[in-house]
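Example record

One chain of 127 residues, shown exactly as stored in the release files.
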Amino acid sequence: MTVMNTTGSFQRDEPLREKGNIMKKTYKYVSGTPLSAEQKKRLEALATQPDSEIDFSDIPELTNRDFENAVRGKFYRPVKKALSLRLDVDVIEWLKKDGRGYQTRANQMLREQMLKELTASRKKTAA
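Predicted structure tokens for this chain:
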């Protein structure tokens, strides 16, 4: 178990691993006091309670108007992964011609192509 020490840093669950796995550490933050038996019992009771018995009277009902200006994925940021990729020199020059952000532009172009192909394959499957 990882516990926060008095200086505010974390202790490791296990010692550092062999070279190559150094970034694969797990941490668990333990805060406050453990749940009492009564608290655990109440949480278990809530977990088994059917939705039909939940009191929603203090929560306003959502309408279609609430979603008029909604944007799907507004705060979604895909996970990035470093990759070594060999490209033709002329392709790299073309990507870099507009200056900084060429990797982002390359990613955007690849994503657009990926989504086109996924949409096309879904249409074929649906037909």
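Notes: The chain has a mean pLDDT of 81.
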